[in-house]
Amino acid sequence: MPGTYSGTVVPLITPFDENGVVDEPSVVRLLDHIRAEVNGFMPALTSGEGWKLDARQWQDVVTYTVRHAGGLPVLAGIQLPDTDAVIDRARTAAEIGADAVVVTTPFGAEVTQDRIVEHYKAIRAALDIPIFLYNEEALSGNRIEFDTLIRICKEIPGIVGIKESSGDAAFTRNMAEAGTGIPVFEGWENLLVDARGIDGFIGPLANLEPSLCNAMLVDPTPDRQAEINTVCERYGVFKDDWYRWVKKELHRRGVISSPTVHEEAKAA
User: Phi/psi class of residue 201: alpha, beta or left (left: φ > 0; alpha: ψ in -120 to 50)?
Assistant: First the structure.
């Protein structure tokens, strides 16, 4: 139900072996590494290279996360370009046992706001699994405008959260203050101090330092934001290929067996 999700939810990296096979023991170690500090797992989102995964890789990482979640909710990322493909994959997520799906808008700069609303209505009409809205632009090429977000929250049942990655802290604050009853999560580490009123955080740093993310949510001071920024710089979280650098650090710590990213595995 809306209002259920809060705090730090981690968009999991996807651990591969050198051949691009999702490594289940590494998934287990990653979940164990962070589970005490987080309120949910989000496999196969952008930090999990979700838009690059083939159907088998996607199914494996979601399956392993559900299998080893230990009672924490699993919100399965779906990063596919059109509504029909999203619905097909959302059905698979429901069959696997995911608690919700995390869905972007359809891909393309030409996508209208009305088309975005119809996209989410069609997903909801096709199946009952709850939906987490992912508002971003880097992958889809468009974003959900404020009035459209409000409309979706009011008109479509089963929306259980918003990952607000517009990069505009004022927009995020306005959404958090809109009174929809649907929790709003900041998706950018560097904006946490400015995103007042949010219900939680969903970002790659949570793979490494979830306790620091929690501390920032409890006490979002400029000093703590400076600490967050320093740690993100240290671990490469602000780089364009942040997932590569997060994997390198997790591998250095012995959490995952290989730092392989998707394009390296394909070349292997």
Answer: beta
Question: Do you know the residue count of the chain?
Answer: 268
Q: What is the pLDDT along the chain (268 residues), one digit of tens a residue?
A: 334 899 999 999 999 999 999 999 999 999 999 999 999 999 999 999 999 999 999 999 999 999 999 999 999 999 999 999 999 999 999 999 999 999 999 999 999 999 999 999 999 999 999 999 999 999 999 999 999 999 999 999 999 999 999 999 999 999 999 999 999 999 999 999 999 899 999 999 999 999 999 999 999 999 999 999 999 999 999 999 999 999 999 999 999 999 999 999 865 4
Q: Which residues are tagged catalytic?
A: 134, 163
CA-wise closest residue to 188 among 213, 208, 209: 213
Between CA 33 and CA 255 the distance in angstroms is 7
Tokens of 247: 């994997």
Question: What are the residues facing 76 on neighbouring strands?
Answer: 101
Q: Provide the edge-to-edge strand list for the sheet that holds 7-11.
A: 41-42, 7-11, 200-202, 184-186, 159-164, 131-135, 100-103, 75-78
Q: CA-to-CA distance for 201 and 210, rounded, in angstroms? A: 10
E-strand stretches of the chain: 7-11, 41-42, 75-78, 100-103, 131-135, 159-164, 184-186, 200-202
Q: SS3 of 256, please? A: coil
Which residues fall within 8 angstroms of residue 75, CB to CB, at 6 or more apart? Answer: 9, 40, 41, 42, 98, 99, 100, 101, 102, 132, 161
